[in-house]
Amino acid sequence: MKRRGFLKTLFLGAAATGSGSGIHAAPKKRLLVQKTIINGMAYYDAEKVVDQISYDDPVHLKREPGNPHDRAAVEVFWEEYKLGYVPRLSNFALAKMLDNGETVTACIAGINARKLPYSGLEIEIVWEG
């Protein structure tokens, strides 16, 4: 997908790209959206499970539009445990992508043992288009 098509999809949703027009789509592409730390680990379940988390483990991203502190909040879960949030300064585009139904995956991309269990986990977020 070219840049213009990606931006249309990002801000207007899949309907704006002409999906479903009967034209065969190209193979799916993967695009790194961002690499970021997880914020707020000290307040959630990270301390309980940090010893079990490994590099490249998948994490689940979930929108939390009702969050009173950040209307673009994106929660980060490992299995059923909430680890924290994608930082507020870098979550707006990701929130739009999730709201538009885009396929976004994430995994553990870095572990800084000196900062655990209160911070020190980095995730990689990928758009599957």
Spell out the key features of this protein:
alpha+beta, Alpha-Beta Plaits, 3 helices, 6 strands, globular, HIRAN, metal-binding, HIRAN domain-containing protein
Could you characterize what this model shows?
The chain is of the alpha+beta class and 129 residues long. The chain has a single domain (26-128), classed as Alpha-Beta Plaits. Helix content is 17%, strand content 31%. The chain has three helices and six strands. It has helices at 3-12, 46-49, 92-99; strands at residues 30-37, 58-63, 74-78, 81-85, 104-111, 121-128. Strands 1-6-5-2-3-4 form a six-stranded antiparallel beta sheet. Strand 3 and strand 4 (81-85) form a beta hairpin. The longest helix has 10 residues, at 3-12. The protein is globular, with a radius of gyration of 16 Å. Residues 31-129 form the HIRAN domain. It holds the Pfam family HIRAN. Keywords: Hydrolase, Metal-binding. This is HIRAN domain-containing protein. It comes from Amphritea pacifica.
Structural class: alpha+beta
CATH architecture group name: 2-Layer Sandwich
Q: What is the count of distinct domains?
A: 1
What is the average of the pLDDT values?
86
**Weakly predicted, low-confidence segments:** none
Strand order of the largest sheet: 1-6-5-2-3-4
Helical fraction:
10-25%
The largest sheet, given as strand count, sense and whether it forms a barrel, is: 6 strands, antiparallel
What is the CATH topology? Alpha-Beta Plaits
What is the name of the CATH class? Alpha Beta
